């Protein structure tokens, strides 16, 4: 049987790296902020109680897995969102759709059966 999308070694490595980067709430917050457009380290650091170098370290992690890119405009190094690695995560997660659909169908069947039994009892 051929390997599915998330079972290919190169895909597993990419997914592992992206999941690892997304595991940190600060990095997720940074990505959420970058949905609104590019921003400097200083701007990205504002809501956090951490140093600029600490925020820069988070940005390096995000950049390494391809979730952001960093430009250079004079003294300003804006960070920009690149969401394509998140698409890989979404495709992987979509594989569980069939499982959940079957689970909900079984639950629907059970509820129908229980309602039918309740009606037979006269309730």
Summarize the structure.
The chain has 123 residues and is mainly alpha-helical. It has helices at residues 9-22, 25-34, 41-45, 52-64, 84-94, 97-120, and strands spanning 68-70, 79-81.
Can you characterise this structure?
This protein is mainly alpha-helical. It has helices at 9-22, 25-34, 41-45, 52-64, 84-94, 97-120; strands at residues 68-70, 79-81. It has a two-stranded antiparallel ribbon. Helix 1 packs across helix 5. The protein is elongated, with a radius of gyration of 22 Å. The mean pLDDT is 88.
Intertermini distance: 51 Å
Helix % is: 55-70%
Strand order of the largest sheet: 1-2
How much strand content do the residues show? under 5%
Q: Helix/strand/pairing class, anyone?
A: mainly alpha
Mean pLDDT: 88
User: How many helices?
Assistant: 6
The biggest sheet, with number of strands, parallel, antiparallel or mixed sense and barrel status, is: 2 strands, antiparallel
| Count of extended strands | 2
Question: What's the alpha carbon Rg, rounded to whole Å?
Answer: 22 Å
